[in-house]
Amino acid sequence: MGNLTLTDWFFISTVLAIWMLLFYHVILTFAGYRRFVSSFAVEENSTGISLESYPTVSVLVPAHNEEKVIGRTVEALARLEYPKDRIEIIVINDSSTDGTGDVLAEKQNLYPFLKVVTINPPQGAKGKSNALNQGFLASSGEYIVIYDADNTPERRAVRSLVETIVNDPRLGAVVGKFRTRNRNVNILTRFVNIETLNFQWTVQAGRCSLFGLTTITGTNFLIRRSILEKIEGWNIKALTEDTELTVRVYDEGYYITWVPDSVTWEQEPEKWSVWIKQRTRWARGNLGVISYYIRNLFNLRNKRIAGDIIYFFFTYGIFFFSILVSDIIFLLGLFGKSHLTLTGPFTIIWFMAYAMFIFESFISVNFEAGEGTFLNLLLICLMYFTYCQLWLLVVVKAAYSVLSDRISGTNARWYKTERSGG
């Protein structure tokens, strides 16, 4: 061991870090399976409450230049299976310059219960958090539900969320499942579909089962009005308002759970350029949240969420660095620019890691009916070398942007994902 080169040490460190995260995700996968099995034991409306006694709910939908999709979303919300006198649907038309306002006006003629809040510059066009705060001021529900403008929730989506939280005062928020509506359009949407299923049945369901931890996603979640009032709504400086909100809810002493019975269908990017912009914003936002809270880790009152921040720090820091270094060593080795002096079954170790990635990914997609196909298995095998490697590019771009913003003293600009149509 004393004769190891610097390249050898780098290689050993990256292998250990990669295997640590892979092994952790395998554990999460089995925990996700336990959550999957337990979901069958939940009886419909197990709360025992009648429709007449359901609490009031406000559904907020931020919309900035969403004429291609907002009509379909409003129609889906109008079909929600929830007492009409206990639900208000509020679409926030956030300084749209396209036909969003016209579409909403047409829908108001069909659905008088639809409320449209229009905000114009300089109050508007400041991002999703600002739009949600404006919509929240116009709402009156005891609970607040959020959907993105491209979402078509299933009829029982809101009921499932309400039925989960209503009799548990410890719950601050509940998060439903989102599915990819346009997953069969091209190879990108198929990759995204697999990624979202893996995230939800491994990271969400697994962490929920093992540690009682769930991350609020940007859509299909419900939160208590009292909590939003106490924490003064959404942070308008956060690019990933959902991740930032998660930390604050836990730190207020509440917990969050995942509800797979609540399902919404959303449109994912169909172009690589749109996907990269979207994921770069997500990475920038997550890096900002991690950077802030890792510095204030010991100030958090809820140590459970502190552990989760460490996990995300490991993912975006150590794991990212390990993947990057291992890729560089591999490429340098191909061109004869780098040589390992180590001896051992490293090819076997690499193939075992690759097999573990395929194993955990394919198990998680099998939790959804009709997704455990041979085509998805082939796509997972391909994802490791293509789609997953693009994550490195996204994080590099995000880190560069964060650094540039801090040097220049400018604030990050919120990017709205471009839509492809209904």
TrEMBL record:
Record field: transmembrane: 6-31, 309-335, 347-367, 374-396
Cited InterPro entries: Nucleotide-diphossugar_trans
Keywords: Glycosyltransferase, Membrane, Transferase, Transmembrane, Transmembrane helix
Domain of life the protein comes from: Bacteria
Pfam families: Glyco_tranf_2_3
GO terms for MF: glycosyltransferase activity
Family from the record: Belongs to the glycosyltransferase 2 family.
Name of protein: Glycosyl transferase
Organism in which the protein naturally occurs: Desulfosporosinus acidiphilus (strain DSM 22704 / JCM 16185 / SJ4)
